[in-house]
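Report of the visiting student (M.T.), summer placement. My assignment was to run the structure pipeline on a short list of targets and document each run. The first record concerns Prephenate dehydrogenase.
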Amino acid sequence: MNVFVIGIGLIGGSLVLDIKNEYQNATIYGIDNSEEHLNKALALNIIDKKATYKDLDIADIVIISIPVDVSLHVIPKVLDGVHDNCLVLDVGSTKELVCKSVENHSKRRNFLAAHPIAGTEFSGPTAAIRNLYKGKTNIICEVEKTAFKLQEKALEIFSKLGMRIRYMDPKSHDKHIAYVSHLSHISSFMLGKTVIDKEKNERDIFDMAGSGFASTVRLAKSSPAMWTPIFEQNKENVIETLEEYIQNLQHFKLLLAENKFDAIYAEMENTNHIKQILNGIQEVKLQ
Ligand code: NAP
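After the run finished, the structure tokens were exported:
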């Protein structure tokens, strides 16, 4: 089985590490615009061989794991180059535009739009890790537009990697993911910025930073090259979530200014409910 991965970073690299482990007959070919990343991926045994787009005719599976703006151009080109039984899998974090970019392609049935909800704040081949997807949710969009045999092939891989599947239309995916992923990243980036700006004047501030700060700004280490096109593609949904978030921040500030500490207590107590929600999700995942 010839598995090609275009973009050997955190997501693509972690996927092929697990695929290689599950499928002894898999040969992993890597395509990346960074020669350094290709060499690193070879040295780390993430890929078996370097490849180019010209080699795609021998691919059985192509995983596209590059920034979402680049995917819009790369996916149609990949579909042009693969044989009729090849599965082309996109794992980008936005789904509406990518699904549109292939809607009229003659090989649309070879394409599956997915978004594994898994990751870390690190990037590049050195960030690739085994078992990243175990117990994680994988959202699949427009499954009915993918050939049945190729759906089965993809589902077998996802199941071997331990992923749970959720089906969603691309528009709903982009709307909901803006809340649970995109907003958290913006909030982390801007919290980091606020503290860095302050630190310019008060050099001791980071000595006081505890684990709460570290865990809240963890996402601010994420790659701008990956996140800028995500925010661009999902701009309208992200703006809507930001407006709601800013309103909540302003409301909190007002309560403080007006000494309404009972209301502040109630706000936090109501939000403590997030514990039950997240524990519920955890329990479902473990089942
Ligand atoms: P990453 O670690 O930065 O890996 C992306 C790789 O693609 C890098 O090696 C990059 O090289 C390369 N690349 C960039 N443009 C390319 C092109 N035109 N052709 C070939 N290779 C190219 O990023 P990632 O976190 O794995 O993200 C990859 C995809 O997964 C994105 O679509 C993202 O939305 C999605 N995703 C990410 C997460 C997450 O938490 N990180 C979760 C789910 C899905 P250079 O660095 O040299 O440009």
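The domain at 2-169 is CATH 3.40.50.720 (Rossmann fold). The beta strands are 2-6, 27-31, 49-50, 61-64, 87-90, 111-116, 137-141, 164-168. I thank the supervising group for their guidance throughout the placement.
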